[in-house]
């Protein structure tokens, strides 16, 4: 069985490794938020319950990193509303209520915001969480991120196979006595159609929306992870351009990612359009030849789903087979060793090559696979 001290040490080391650019005060505040002073309780639990508690910490940590940490308060709040508003069961209930109510101009976002505000004002658990987050320290942006992460985790807790937020919405309806769903005919029978069925008169019911809700949840989560990875790549690449190319290149990238045309960027940066096109080619070279191959290959590969180990450089099974057979024997050996997880230095030592030669060969292999992907997409 694990001890509380080993768990604290593991999380502290993990935060230092995954967030080296953040201050020690910030990392300690996140650590305080995650662990919630459960030392004596943790040591008294059996191994199974310890694993459940660790999974809960991991879930909260992933929520924080994916949507809230290092994000502006406005963007973080949008992420929360988009995430909770995407719950299929909740969205359907809200739309039904709005369609039957007097005020049909209200949107799902409006109702979710009202329910969340009511929870923050009256829910004792959330109020206790906000007081605890304040005691953990950190600046206002960090505390705001921790509050939003705690709020999302709390709203998604499953209660009888439905998110807790759904029940909070039902309570909100009961208090909104003038809402449309409460205006039912008093002299007529009302038939309620449930989304749950009991097959063959079995005591256990089956929720017809569970599979659909789970599918939408997984799809939304995958999209949000992609957006988070995209933002990480953009930040890292902009910093790389700032340090290794020029501040002008970093400014061009930020404007380009915002959707500005080359003419609009040239006007904003007050740079001749010909110089800007040369700068674009330079940025493209560094993006493909340097940043994605040497500087941050894992980050880019995870974003594009082109990692060698997990995604076969982004190739389908048939494309990979043709690609692998087209390589020379020494290239196949280098590729196999990279796929096995060996480092550049280990491969160079084993094949009696220089590290620059191995890096050069890997660049050729990567670009050849990229050319196949581009031709397929075209």
TrEMBL record:
Report the InterPro entries cross-referenced here. Answer: HetZ-rel_2
Q: What is this protein called?
A: HetZ-related protein 2
Record the organism.
Phormidium yuhuli AB48
